[in-house]
Design brief:
heterodimer, A: mainly alpha, 14 helices, B: 16 helices, 48% helix
Chain lengths: 303, 361
C-alpha cells in the first residue's frame, strides 16, 4: 500500500471531526475556560479577566437559580414520570391488541415529538387562552354540573397565573415526549421472546399478570435507558416553558428552569462567565443523577 | 449599500456576537432602546460626539433625553436616536362621554384616574386598563428628574426599595382590587381582542400606539379614540430606535455620513413619520407644519402637537447596563404582590437586594 492510501480513510472521516471540533469541541472547552473568567462581551475577547472559582460561588448561590432548580425538578417529575407510567401500558396494549393500522397509531403518538416548537406554541397558546381557549370553554360547561362544578377552578389563566403555569407546561412536556417513549418501549417489546408469553397464557396468567410479571422485568434495560433519557432531557428543559410563557412577564419565573436561567444570565444580562459556570454545574448534577439512576437499576437487576 | 434585515431578537443577538468577536460587524447597526444598555456597556462602539464635532454637526438638534439614553458612563455618545416614543394616554372618548366624564377627569391625579375608571366601569362595563402593569410602568417613571435612573440612582445603587416604587405598587394593586384592569399581556391575542371588542377604555403607551390602533388593533373604532398627556403630570418616553457605528467598521466615514442623512436630514425624518409613523428625533421637524396636521383616526385631533410637547419635557434618564435585569426582577416582585398577596415593602426589599447582588459586576 502506498503511504497516501494509508491516510485516505482519515481524510474521509476528517469532515466530521473538523465540524465536530469547530461546532462541538471548541464551544465546550471555551465555555469551560469562560466559566473561570469575568467577561464583558461587547468589549471583545481581550476583556476576559481571570476570577477563578468566583463565578461558581456566585452563580450557585443565586436565589433565582435555587428556584429554577426547584421548578426543573417539579417539571421533571410532573412532566416526566407520567410519560413512562402511560407509555409502558400503552405500548403493551398496542403490542398485544392492535394489529391493523399499528403504524398509524404509533405515528399519531409520535407526531408531537417531531412537531416544530412554533406550531406547538401557537396551538397551546390557543388552547390555554383564558378568555377564548377550548380548555376553559370545556371547564365552563363542566362547572354547570352540580357537585363536580364546585371543585373546578373558574376560568384559570393557564399561562398567566403562577398557580397554573407549571401544570400547563408539564402537560405539554408529557404530550410531546409520550410518543418517543412509546416507540422505545414498543421496539423493546417486539424483541421479547413470544414463547414466554404463550407459555404464560397456557399456564392461565391474565394479560395484566403477564404485563407485571413478565413484560416489565424483561423490559428493565429499556426502562433504564428511557428514564435516563428523560432525566437528562428534563434537567435541560428549555423549549417548552420558554415558548409557552413570555419571559418578559413577571409570571415567567414560575416556570423558569435551570436552562432558562443559564440562557438569561448569558444572553440577556451578558454575564457569560457565570452562565458557563452554572451550565457546567448543571452538567455535573446530570452526571451524578444518571450515575445514581444506573446504580439503582443495576442493583435491582442483580437481586 | 447593502441592507441586512433580521428578525428583532436575531438582529440583537447577532450584533452582540459581532461586538464580542469583532467579526461580521456592519458599518452601521440599528439598536433598539431595550438593548442599548447592554450594547453601550462595552467599548465596541464609536463615540459619535467626536465624529459630530469633526464636521460641526450640532447634536442638540436631537432631544437631550434620547442622547442621555445612548451615553455611556464614560460620557461617550455611542448611538444616535432616529425615532422616539413620547408617552401618551389614548382613551375612548365615546366611553368617557357615556360615563359623563371629560378628559381632565382622567388626568388630574392618579387617584382621580382610578376614580374615573370606576365610573367608566359602572356606566359602560369597559375596563380602565388592559393591565395594572401598565400603570406600574408609567408610575415608576413619573417624578424622575434629569440624571435620575429608573432603577438605579446616580451612584449606580438600585433604588427599588424607594417611596416611588412603593407608591406605584400600591396604586397598581388598588387598580387590580377595584377590578379596573383586564390582567392581559400587551401584544397577546387576548389583548388585541379586548381592544377590538371595545373592552378597553384607555391605554398608556408611546404615541406610536395610535398607528397600531389604526392599522390593526381597532380600525373599526376610527374617530372614537383621542390622545392625551399621561395622567398625574407624568412625562415619559416609550422605546426608541438608534443607529450605532462599531469601532471595527470598515468605512466609518461613510457610515457617519449615512447616520447623518438618516437623522439630521429633514426629508428622511419626515418620510419616516409619514410612512411608518415613527416620531422624529430631529427637533427641527417638530416645528414643521406636518405636526399641525389633523389625524383622522383620532377624530381630527392635532395630536402630534401634544406629543411634540411631551417630547420636550421628557427628563434625561440615563440607561443602566442592568436595566433589563432590574425590569425582570421588579415584574416578578409585582407578580408576587398581585397573585400571591405578599406585602409590598417585603418584596421591594428583596428585589432591591437581588438587583444589588446581580448588578455588582
Amino acid at each position: 500500500m502506498k503511504p497516501s492510501r494509508r491516510w485516505l480513510p482519515y481524510l474521509f472521516v476528517a469532515p466530521f471531526f473538523l465540524l465536530f471540533l469547530v461546532f462541538g469541541g471548541f464551544p465546550l472547552l471555551f465555555s469551560l475556560w469562560l466559566s473561570f473568567h469575568q467577561w464583558e462581551p461587547s468589549e471583545g475577547l481581550g476583556a476576559m479577566r481571570w476570577v477563578g472559582l468566583e463565578n461558581y460561588a456566585y452563580g450557585l448561590t443565586d436565589p433565582w437559580l435555587i428556584d429554577a432548580l426547584y421548578n426543573t425538578v417539579w417539571l421533571a417529575i410532573a412532566g416526566g414520570l407520567p410519560q413512562h407510567l402511560v407509555a409502558l401500558p400503552l405500548a403493551y396494549l398496542i403490542h398485544r391488541r392492535v394489529r391493523r393500522g399499528r403504524d398509524l397509531v404509533l405515528g399519531a403518538y409520535f407526531v408531537p415529538y417531531i412537531s416544530s416548537s412554533v406550531a406547538i406554541a401557537v396551538i397551546f397558546a390557543t388552547l390555554y387562552s383564558r378568555d377564548y381557549g377550548l380548555i376553559n370553554a370545556v371547564l365552563a360547561e363542566l362547572t354547570r354540573i352540580p357537585f363536580v362544578g364546585a371543585w373546578l377552578p373558574a376560568q384559570p389563566d393557564w399561562l398567566g397565573d403562577a398557580a397554573y403555569t407549571k401544570p400547563a407546561v408539564a402537560f405539554v412536556v408529557f404530550w410531546r415526549y409520550l410518543g418517543w417513549n412509546l416507540v422505545l418501549y414498543l421496539t423493546a417489546m417486539q424483541t421479547l421472546d413470544n414463547d414466554l408469553f404463550e407459555a404464560a397464557t397456557l399456564d392461565g396468567a391474565s394479560p395484566w399478570r403477564q404485563f407485571f410479571g413478565l413484560a416489565l422485568p424483561l423490559l428493565k434495560p429499556m426502562i433504564f435507558f428511557a428514564i435516563t433519557l428523560s432525566l437528562i432531557g428534563s434537567l435541560q428543559l428549555f423549549e417548552e416553558p420558554f415558548i409557552l410563557v413570555d419571559s418578559e412577564k413577571g409570571v415567567a419565573r414560575s416556570v423558569m428552569t435551570a436552562a432558562i436561567f443559564t440562557y438569561q444570565t448569558a444572553f440577556v444580562d451578558g454575564d457569560y462567565g457565570t452562565a458557563s459556570a452554572v451550565a457546567w454545574a448543571l452538567f455535573a448534577l446530570i452526571a451524578v443523577l444518571t450515575w445514581l439512576n444506573a446504580r439503582l437499576f443495576s442493583r435491582g437487576a442483580h437481586a | 449599500m447593502k441592507l441586512v434585515s433580521r428578525s428583532y431578537p436575531d438582529h440583537h443577538t447577532a450584533m452582540n456576537a459581532g461586538l464580542a468577536t469583532r467579526a461580521g460587524l456592519p458599518d452601521v447597526m440599528a439598536v433598539d432602546l431595550r438593548f442599548l444598555g447592554q450594547f453601550t456597556a462595552g467599548g465596541g462602539l464609536m463615540n459619535l460626539a467626536d465624529l459630530a464635532a469633526a464636521d460641526g454637526t450640532d447634536l442638540t438638534r436631537v432631544p437631550a433625553f434620547s442622547r442621555a439614553q445612548a451615553t455611556t458612563h464614560r460620557g461617550e455618545l455611542v448611538a444616535m436616536p432616529t425615532d422616539i416614543g413620547p408617552g401618551s394616554l389614548m382613551y375612548r372618548r365615546d366611553l368617557l362621554q357615556r360615563a359623563g366624564l371629560k378628559e381632565h377627569d382622567l388626568l388630574h391625579s392618579w387617584q382621580e384616574f382610578l376614580r374615573a375608571g370606576a365610573v367608566i366601569k359602572r356606566a359602560t362595563g369597559a375596563s380602565l386598563l388592559s393591565s395594572a402593569g401598565d400603570l406600574l410602568d408609567i408610575m415608576l417613571r413619573s417624578g424622575l428628574g434629569d440624571g435620575d435612573g429608573l432603577y438605579f440612582d446616580r451612584s449606580s445603587q438600585p433604588s427599588v426599595d424607594s417611596e416611588r416604587f412603593a407608591r406605584a405598587f400600591e396604586l397598581s394593586l388598588q387598580a387590580r382590587r377595584l377590578g379596573l384592569d383586564l390582567a392581559l399581556t400587551a401584544w397577546s391575542n387576548e389583548w388585541a381582542a379586548a381592544f377590538r371588542q371595545g373592552k378597553v377604555a384607555t391605554q398608556m403607551m408611546g404615541c406610536w400606539l395610535a398607528g397600531h390602533l389604526k392599522n390593526w388593533l381597532a380600525p373599526a373604532q376610527a374617530g372614537l379614540w383621542r390622545a392625551a398627556p399621561l395622567p398625574g403630570g407624568a412625562v415619559a418616553s416609550y422605546g426608541g430606535s438608534f443607529y450605532a457605528i462599531p469601532k471595527a467598521a470598515a468605512n466609518p466615514q461613510a457610515a457617519w455620513a449615512f447616520v447623518r442623512q438618516m437623522v439630521f436630514e429633514q426629508s428622511t425624518q419626515l418620510q419616516s413619520l409619514q410612512v411608518i409613523d415613527a416620531f422624529p428625533a430631529l427637533l427641527e421637524l417638530h416645528q414643521h407644519p406636518v405636526m399641525d396636521e389633523p389625524l383622522p383616526y383620532l377624530g381630527g385631533q392635532r395630536a402630534r402637537q401634544l406629543w411634540r410637547d411631551v417630547a420636550g419635557k421628557v427628563p434625561a434618564t440615563p440607561i443602566h447596563k442592568f436595566d433589563a435585569l432590574a425590569t425582570r426582577v421588579v415584574r416578578d416582585a409585582f407578580e408576587q404582590v398581585m397573585t400571591q398577596g405578599r406585602s409590598i415593602p417585603t418584596v421591594l426589599r428583596e428585589a432591591n437586594a437581588l438587583i444589588r447582588r446581580r448588578a455588582r459586576r
